[in-house]
């Protein structure tokens, strides 16, 4: 593996913890993503200089996240591993898994807490803050649920719009404010 490819794979390992899995699994994911051909567990082990057992555990984790898939080559008994979709599909899967692991439990806790009646002003304030957090997370969750329905082309367009959407909303506000005067 050349130094630029190795640097990318190592960076994926560092980013792994931010994506929700460990360094080795991040490296495995990065390696599989940039490999033109599907890789065997032994090839992954050799390329990353990690144990075959570590690769086996990493493969199970990446399969649980639905980021890799097994491929078979006719006449070959080995299992080969490849990305389970294009980059957009994989990104959406990471996003969805993180939502399930992080946002959903938080929403559940907030819903339970919001069912209680406050017994004093401090609790009332705390519940009001929790309600705002709940509402924000619900909005994000509903918006995120629409992302997979859009498809890669529309998602790419949406991402490119970026700050442009904010400018359009600012113009709308200026227009409405001037119309009120």
* Biggest sheet statistics: 3 strands, antiparallel
Number of strands: 3
Q: How do the strands of the widest beta sheet line up side by side?
A: 1-3-2
Characterize the quaternary organization of these chains.
single chain
Order of SSEs, N→C?
A: HHEHHEEHHH
Q: Low-confidence runs (pLDDT<50, min 5 residues)?
A: none
Q: Termini, distance in Å? A: 66 Å
**In one word, what is the shape?**
extended
Q: How would you state the average pLDDT, rounded? A: 91
Count of all domains:
2
Helix content: over 70%
Structural class: mainly alpha
Number of helices: 7
Strand content: 5-15%
**Taking Cα atoms only, what radius of gyration do you get, to the nearest Å?**
22 Å
Index terms:
181 residues; Arc Repressor Mutant, subunit A; three-stranded antiparallel beta sheet; 76% helix; extended
């Amino acid at each position: 593996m050349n130094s630029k490819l190795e640097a990318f794979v190592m960076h994926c390992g560092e980013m792994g913890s931010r994506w929700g899995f460990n360094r080795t699994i991040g490296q495995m994911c990065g390696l599989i993503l940039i490999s033109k051909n599907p890789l065997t567990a032994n090839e992954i082990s050799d390329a990353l200089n990690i144990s075959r057992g570590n690769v086996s555990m990493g493969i199970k984790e990446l399969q649980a996240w639905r980021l890799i898939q097994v491929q078979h080559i006719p006449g070959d008994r080995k299992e080969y591993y490849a990305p389970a979709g294009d980059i957009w599909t994989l990104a959406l899967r990471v996003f969805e898994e993180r939502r399930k692991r992080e946002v959903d439990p938080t929403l559940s806790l907030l819903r339970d807490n919001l069912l209680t009646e406050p017994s004093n002003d401090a609790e009332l304030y705390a519940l009001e803050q929790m309600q705002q957090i709940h509402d924000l997370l619900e909005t994000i969750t509903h918006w995120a649920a629409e992302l997979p329905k859009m498809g890669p082309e529309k998602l790419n367009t949406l991402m490119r719009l970026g700050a442009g959407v904010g400018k359009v909303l600012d113009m709308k506000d200026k227009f409405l404010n001037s119309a009120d005067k």
